[in-house]
Specification:
The complex is a heterodimer of chains A (116) and B (112). With 116 residues, chain A is an all-beta fold. Chain A has no helices and ten strands. Classes of the chains: A mainly beta (116), B mainly beta (112).
């Protein structure tokens, strides 16, 4: 596609429910990233996928958060038993190769999650 | 892990003035330093980047300087315009060499 595509763009869920957020990276990009941006805050790194390598999960805030990437393309971020502090914009990004090579990282429009 | 500090958190300038945003990083192995601009309600977009083998890079009204010894880099915007108003984020590569670690952002307001 033309850019990184994320869905849903907005999600309101009740506390305690599970949510899934989807990311479709730019075609041909091997690296995929998830970031979280709370209201008025910076971009918090969550997880990184590069090709078939083991993902870097060092940024996931708790074991309620998980992500997978199937077939080296689409990724799903899952938040189990959502809490109000999970409310944020979840940004997906992709790059041609990993960031170590200095390839530009392109962001999607984000999924705005509100936990009530 | 990598830590990126960004200052100031807010910056207000008059149209036509210059604006400077500064960042420091902790991992001396970092070699790639991009700057992103995020307009209200929009996605962050790359505006300029610099690699560790150069000390300065310019693109029209924006420039970035890098001091590897001191581990800091700066964004310079000259002749600011109202459309430059946005949140600017600096970033550096993390120690694992995987993702970018971002500063907390600078909200730039340019008044006409």
């Amino acid at each position: 596609g033309a850019g990184v595509s994320q869905s849903p763009s907005n999600k309101v869920t009740e506390k305690g429910k599970d949510v899934e957020l989807r990311c479709d990276p730019i075609s041909g990009h091997t690296a995929l990233y998830w970031y979280r941006q709370s209201l008025g805050q910076g971009l918090e790194f969550l997880i990184y996928f590069q090709g078939n390598s083991a993902p870097d999960k060092s940024g996931l805030p708790s074991d309620r958060f998980s992500a997978e990437r199937t077939g080296g393309s689409v990724s799903t971020l899952t938040i189990q038993r959502t809490q109000q502090e999970d409310s944020a914009v979840y940004l997906c990004a992709s790059s041609l190769m990993g960031s170590f090579s200095g390839n530009t990282i392109y962001f999607g429009e984000g999924s705005w999650l509100t936990v009530v | 892990g990598e830590n990126v500090e960004q200052h100031p958190s807010t910056l207000s300038v008059q149209e036509g003035d210059s604006a400077v945003i500064k960042c420091t990083y902790s991992d001396s192995a970092s070699n790639y330093f991009p700057w992103y601009k995020q307009e209200l309600g929009k996605r962050p977009q790359l505006i300029i980047d610099i690699r560790s083998n150069v000390g300065e890079k310019k693109d029209q009204r924006i420039a970035v300087t890098l001091n590897k010894t001191a581990k800091h880099f700066s964004l310079h915007i000259t002749e600011t315009q109202p459309e430059d108003s946005a949140v600017y984020f600096c970033a550096a590569r993390n120690q694992a060499g995987t993702a970018l670690i971002f500063g907390k952002g600078t909200t730039l307001s340019v008044s006409s």
